[in-house]
Design a protein that fits this description.
about 160 residues; Alpha-Beta Plaits; about 35% helix; about 15% strand; elongated
Length: about 160
């Protein structure tokens, strides 16, 4: 990875320009061709420097106003199957297992779900519960976001 690769990654972290040819605008800033940018990105992905290239949305701007972590109490022998089933819901962005604290916190599987409002999220969670047969869960809605930021400038 050289200084041009670093500059490409930095500029992309700022977001693609809203243009029919966003790579042409970036290429012009760097004095290279759009094809070279794409070639370099492909190589950086193949080398494992970047995992993927995708969009990062600002949820409220696309109508996602309700975000919740749902904690599920799942029998240990069913965690893998239930986790797989829950992760298949398109509204689920995270699904993971954590240890319990016996007698204090018995929830062991967590999903993060998003929707346009709390009622929609509640209906979704009810469908998830019905699909998995897990009836013991708690919905924890977000009330305030403290941080949302990119990784920052690569040096």
């Amino acid at each position: 990875m050289d200084s041009i690769d670093r500059e490409i990654l930095y500029l992309l972290q700022e977001g693609l320009p809203l243009s029919s040819e966003p790579f042409a605008l970036i290429a012009e800033k760097l004095g290279i061709t759009p094809g070279e940018i794409l070639s370099r990105l492909k190589l950086l992905r193949e080398e494992g420097v970047i995992r993927r290239f995708g969009a990062s949305l600002r949820p409220p701007k696309v109508g996602i106003l309700a975000n919740a972590m749902v904690a599920w109490k799942v029998p240990s022998g069913r965690v893998e199957a239930v986790g797989t089933a829950l992760s298949r819901f398109p509204e689920v962005t995270h699904c993971y297992e954590r240890r319990t604290v016996p007698g204090k916190w018995d929830y062991n599987l967590y999903t993060v779900v998003h929707g346009p409002n709390q009622e929609t999220v509640r209906r979704l969670v009810a469908r998830m519960a019905k699909k998995t047969g897990i009836k013991d869960f708690i919905i924890l809605f977000s009330t305030k976001e403290f941080k949302r930021a990119s990784a920052g400038r690569i040096t």
